[in-house]
Specification:
The chain has 243 residues and is of the alpha+beta class. The protein folds into two domains: 57 residues; 181 residues, no CATH class. It contains six helices and ten strands, in the order αββββαββααααββββ.
């Protein structure tokens, strides 16, 4: 009798241990699967966030400025001669324009439309990059109204202009309204609509670059110098390591 009871107790203990081991293994595997699922979700969110940050911080070149010459006027003011070229999305330089301004500090003015960060991060159609249209160039010793008007159609794809009934064309038609009416701007997904003038003090031989941020506006920076002075419109340009 005692022996039978002992065997029964041993069998019961074995059954409990087996059940405990099974339960531990079962829920352990379930916990591992749950943690792996969470890790995969976090990795996906991390990759998505990295892509958002990349889109928001992206930038591209939209114009190049070569400082050809600088001399004094009869009144002693500096006169700066520039060679201006817009740049297409593929990096192709547009038709060059020779521009003369009064002053060493030069301003490049444009109309700029900036979209909401969420639209840019999500690569929303027609609203995944800031828009701009160049207006004019002027120097520190002249009023903006006397500045040199830039060609706003060369190249067209750079200026953000396309078909008359396109989204971008409609935005440009309402540019002043977007500036003055926050409710209308929000309806179009516009964060800011304004005039901007990037500026820099320029010296002969310098090469400058105008860039546009995906989520921001215009930037101006010097990217190099000429290896030798201009001659007969043929110049050998050497870009410095500051790019």
């Amino acid at each position: 009798m005692f022996r039978f009871r002992w065997i029964k107790l041993c069998f019961g203990a074995f059954a409990l241990v087996a059940a405990a081991v099974f339960t531990t293994d079962h829920f352990g595997a379930f916990e591992v699967r749950r943690l792996r699922s969470q890790i995969n979700e976090l990795e996906r969110e991390k990759a998505e966030m990295a892509l958002y940050v990349e889109r928001l911080s992206d930038s591209r070149r939209v114009a190049q400025v070569d400082v050809v010459e600088q001399y004094q006027s009869d009144t002693g003011e500096p006169i700066t001669l520039l060679r201006w070229q817009q740049i297409g999305p593929s990096g192709t330089l547009g038709v060059p324009e020779n521009i003369e301004v009064k002053g060493a500090q030069v301003y490049f003015e444009a109309k700029v439309i900036k979209f909401k960060h969420s639209l840019i991060a999500q690569a929303a159609p027609d609203k995944d990059w800031s828009l701009f249209v160049f207006r004019r160039v002027f120097g520190e010793h002249q009023s903006p109204s006397t500045g040199y008007p830039l060609d706003r159609k060369a190249p067209i794809d750079v200026a953000g202009e396309s078909e008359p009934d396109s989204t971008h064309a409609r935005l440009w038609d309402r540019f002043l309204q977007l500036m003055e009416n926050p409710v209308l701007a929000s309806e179009y997904g516009v964060r800011t609509a304004q005039y901007e003038a990037a500026s820099g003090v320029m010296r002969p031989g310098q090469i400058w670059e105008v860039s546009l941020d995906a989520a921001g506006g215009l930037n101006l920076r010097m990217i190099g110098v000429q290896s030798r002075p201009a001659a007969n419109n043929e110049r050998n340009l050497q870009i410095s390591a500051r790019q």
